[in-house]
Amino acid sequence: MDYVILAQRIIEWMREYTHQAHAQGLVVGLSGGIDSAVTTGLAIHAVGREHVLAALLPCHSQSEDARFAHMAAQALGLDPITIDLSDTYDTLCASLPQGSEMAQANIKPRLRMTTLYYLGQSRNYLVAGTGNKPEIMVGYFTKYGDGGVDLEPLGALYKHEVSELARVLGIPEPLINRPPTAGLWPGQTDEEELGITYAELDSILAAFDAGETPAVASQIVEKVNQMITAAGHKRAMPPVFHIDRENITSYNE
Fold it and tell me: Which end of the chain has less neighbouring CB within 10 Å, N or C?
């Protein structure tokens, strides 16, 4: 694949989508990961640097996240804003009944989503998502959190394709090679939580797309199939009850 052409096609799509929405620009949550850096780089080419807002939204986050986020911003020529959501998170959690650790952790991306939409609506900007194909397919995102966006520029790309695109866009190599993390808790990594590597996920999904049998252990393939099925509700709009008006009659009839 020619990744220069791929970048151009995504940029054109982002530019046209933003124009059709009558939006003035794009806002991206810059997390310190490769996906958000690539999305931000594409956004700059799509609508111009002056119409891109990059936001760091720490929420009891690791200092490494901010360091890598600033590394990406510097490479892309942006001056990001920082809004610390830690106190907001603490206040909300203190007012809630006790729940599971995952329920609490998922408050963080949902607070970020709310903040990004506030920033976007204040400027008439769209919120650009950072999800890639493996994450979207297996549901490795928070519903109405990092999944709550207006467009997903990387949504059709395998993880290794995102890495290649990052090199085209001039993203620093240390950021490209950084182990992916959602930053939900200290030391958390995507692959450890998923129980599968992105390389394995890429190969399995590519085989599915080609109508072939994945060249990995059958139990891993079955696990991925189960994840895809279970995440179906996260990839779809909420179902709407269909009214068959002609067949609704009074109980007295």
Answer: C
